[in-house]
Amino acid sequence: MALREAIESGKFVVTTEVGPLKGTDTSEVMEVAEILKGKVDGVNVTDQQSAVMRLGSLATCALLVQKGLEPVFLGIKNVLVISGDFPTLGDHIDAKEVYDLDSEQLIWTINQMNGGHDVAGNELQGKTDFLVGAVVKPVSDTDASTELQLAMMEKKISVGARFFQTQAVYEVDAFERFMKRAAQFKVPVLVGIIPLKSVGMARYMNKNVSGVFVPEELIDEMGKAEDKTATGLQIAARLINDLKDLCQGVHIMAIGWEKKVPELLQMAKLA
Question: What is the pTM of this model?
């Protein structure tokens, strides 16, 4: 079942990510693709993630299509519109930043093309048919920040977003509060899950990743664990089970643990 059909049918959707590597060796990507085949509804192929030069996402998507997976990237069938990382955070710090369009304007532009017109309103000879997704941060530090996220979500829907993937969630109650507010939009939301690998990773995200907060009890659980990998997967599976009745799907950002996604899905009873 294609990602569009899965989302529109009301199926609980499972997506994950396969990040292009730095260089032309695609063997690991192809190995991961073989492992994920038939186990997920879609695969995000991030474009120059972390502002680091990598193999082109479009080329990587083409490889995944050959393996029978459905990528989420412009040029295939689906596109997730997200603001990029600043070049100063990456490996080419002198690269020029481009601000021709923000995320909302890009969503609008894609839907213009879906309707058979370019940005200027000129008619196209043949139109696109992209399923457009966007991102949202469901966990915020303040009420004002939550209101801003809801307003941005509503705006993105108004210009054509048809589903959302969220930033990583570790607080069930906070996510439930957000989803009660977001239910008015009647748009599928896939909750973001990042399996914890260490205490250091959790504290790094708390300090540096906007919209992500790992509760101290989960950090303590990781700290006491003898097998960090098993415990990280167990926490992720537990979160999926606690969150899945509040949303329409899950987006797993494995960050180097892509080969463990099928195991996580088994643990969460989503296989």
Answer: 0.88
